[in-house]
Design goal:
With 266 residues, the protein is mainly alpha-helical. 70% of the residues lie in helices and 0% in strands. The longest helix is centred in the C-terminal third of the chain and has 23 residues. The N and C termini lie far apart (41 Å).
Length: 266
């Protein structure tokens, strides 16, 4: 595990307080809480996902995941009350295209945006350097997609019960990874751990028992690592389920948006 949830919560609280403390006393009741900011970022991650899904030419899943992680990293240390997630999300997508070598010009990118495209272009280009600085110019993002491919190849090669069933796992693997994109899993677990958790989860749903594969092959030399993986998987599964159960309603997001507008125009 790369960190812990308490540390992440403290970073978000600090980012929130940094802005809340500079507001006048009359604004104290209207500033966003850390939980409201978290809900708003999650909502805009969903908007970012829809934007990327409809993008032309089609974006690869690694570009989309990179954009997600950039946005999530940004809001660990920054507040929605200073940087609107609408603007940051689209800037993250534009930067992810560059980093993942998905070659689109700014003109091609802007064609995918609805509304005032000139204003959007100005916003993206003015935010790009700031975003890069806030990310500490650390642009390399390690994703679980390639480890998933490696585990599936290994299953076909070394684990006969799974040899003809790996294709059945793909849909469930994708759903697990999709859900994990909205959680803090990327901050707490290595990409290979998330990948193996996705494969294990899919196997359970498809009635494929991977216990022997994990204990006798993946973790043959370290049974403690097997127990650790099971705990990590349980944690990721709980995070996915909790996130799905606590998706903010449209009405709740509208109220937060209204508060944000009042704060940003004050």
């Amino acid at each position: 595990m790369k960190g812990n949830q308490t540390e992440l919560d403290q970073l978000r609280i600090a980012a929130n307080e940094k802005i809340s403390n500079v507001k006048s006393p009359s604004m104290k009741e209207t500033v966003l809480t850390p939980n409201e900011e978290l809900s708003l970022v999650r909502s805009y991650l969903f908007n970012l996902r829809e934007f990327c899904r409809k993008f032309q030419p089609p974006m690869g899943k690694s570009v989309i995941a990179t954009a997600f992680i950039f946005m999530k990293r940004f809001y660990l240390h920054e507040s929605c009350m200073e940087h609107h997630p609408r603007d940051i999300g689209v800037t993250c997508a534009y930067l992810a295209c560059k980093i993942d070598e998905f070659n689109v010009t700014i003109d091609q990118f802007i064609k995918n945006i609805q509304g005032d495209r000139k204003k959007a272009q100005k916003t993206i280009l003015s935010n790009e350097l700031m975003l890069m600085k806030k990310l500490n110019f650390q642009f390399i993002v390690h994703l679980p997609f390639r480890p998933v491919e490696g585990f599936l190849i290994d299953l076909r090669a070394r684990y006969p019960p799974a040899r003809d069933k790996t294709d059945l796992l793909l849909k469930e693997i994708e759903e697990f990874l999709e859900k994990s994109m909205y959680t803090d899993a990327c901050f707490l677990f290595a990409p290979s751990q998330i990948a193996l958790a996705a494969v294990y989860h899919a196997a359970q749903i498809c009635d494929l028992n991977l216990k022997d594969y994990l204990k006798k092959m993946v973790f043959a030399d370290d049974q403690g690592a097997y127990e650790y993986f099971k705990r990590a998987y349980d944690c990721m599964q709980q995070m996915n389920e909790s996130d799905q159960q606590n998706i903010p309603t449209k009405e709740a997001i509208k109220k937060i948006e209204k508060k944000l507008q009042e704060v940003m125009t004050s």
